[in-house]
TrEMBL record:
UniProt organism field: Eucalyptus grandis
Top-rank EC class of the record's enzyme: transferase
Signal sequence interval, chain numbering: none
Taxonomic placement: Eukaryota, Viridiplantae, Streptophyta, Embryophyta, Tracheophyta
Keyword annotations of the record: Glycosyltransferase, Transferase
Molecular function GO terms recorded: UDP-glucosyltransferase activity
EC number in record: 2.4.1.-
InterPro entries registered for this protein in UniProt: UDP_glucos_trans (IPR002213), UDP_glycos_trans_CS (IPR035595)
One Pfam family cited in the UniProt record for this chain: UDPGT
Family assignment from sequence similarity: Belongs to the UDP-glycosyltransferase family.
The name this protein goes by in its record: Glycosyltransferase
Amino acid sequence: MSSGKHVVVIPFPFGGQAWALTNLVLKLAPATPDVCFSFLNIAKSNSLIFPLPLRSKLPSNVRVYEVNDGLPDGHCGPMEHSGEHVELFLKVAPENFKAAVDAAERDVRKKEIFNSFLTDALVTFAGEMAEKVQVPWVALWVPTPYCLAAHVYIDVISELRRESSGGGTSTDNNDDNKSLGVIPGLSMMRISDLPKELIDDQDTSRSACMLREVGRVLPRGTAAVVMNSFAEFKMLLQVGCLAVSFPPLPLPSSSTSDTTGCLTWLDAREPRSVAYICFGTVAMPSPSELSAIGEALESTKTPFLWSIKESAMAFLPEGLQERTREYGKFVPWAPQAQVLSHLACGVYVTHCGYISMFESVVGGVPMVCKPFWADNMMNGRMIEEVWGIGVKVKDGTITKTGIEMALEVVLRGEDGKEMRKKAGELRERLVEAAGPNGIADADFKVLVKLISTS
């Protein structure tokens, strides 16, 4: 590789966050052959994203480094995916990653010039590191842009809430239904759509404090914020720095094989007839809600593919798996992007995670929404009221009757046909934005120039 630049890449290594940054780096690498990307990550996350057999196939200008995650030596237990682990990671990460940056620098110093940081936006300590060595910091914001707006303008939102309650701390429904239209990027939202911890527990919640810091440092510390979105959203948010689009098309997986037979099973189903149920890797409906979904699927005899953890199977109605064997399939994991793009998939019962939502849009599949936390409520509002491509469960709780009605509306009703049409139209706009002459392509070229010439 000829002499060029060196970019330090740091993902946020929990949940599915790291995949989006990986996707961006793998798109940037061939477009910037003279730039070396040092991907610094904890071992567990790296093992999922870059399994050892696949590392030799990475672009020659992408190098993978392991960083201490802060766990005690030899620890393996439930803390590994908990808020406690995230808190510990954030506490020790700045020093550990500084050492890793120094190691990466020693590896490339004779070939490349260290010129920028490219990190997940949640890795806010990168701002201080970039400022210290006087290089640009480019941050990727993975969730919805309107969720970032909530963090940037949290003080304004808090003041609006105080004013609506007469200066008190009332949580009256009228307060929660107050429009946030005066805040850039939140014209469609209401206070009730905001993450509860952001509003009710902003000084003590780990996640709220972390996100408050994101809202504080991103507008003033970054050279650019890469939005995991496209033009329709990017224009809604002004954060005081360059904002570029990176369209949320389906992300790569460490395995493309259909190990659970989902796609083969779908091949035998009628077009747009199957309900796909999945609540992501973290969200979990209550036992009664899981049972209600099972009862509704059985009573309506709706063909279904359900990605469900083995531990949650105990909460389903007894004998459900045997009784629904002819038209239903339970799996511990599914190739979600491929499932949602399969002709047989007719509706997606989802927690409204951002990437999941757009995988559904790419497949042209309407949704039944059960939001849980973070940006889920905002996404649910967009899906039901702004885009018109799905329905939320009544009163925020899954019931047998509610799921029966939702399946009837989306799979078999005229409203469902309209939702599917609108989902297809939104998909076309997304594909256009990501196409050769789309806004995302133009923005990507701006990002390539920034990284190549800084």
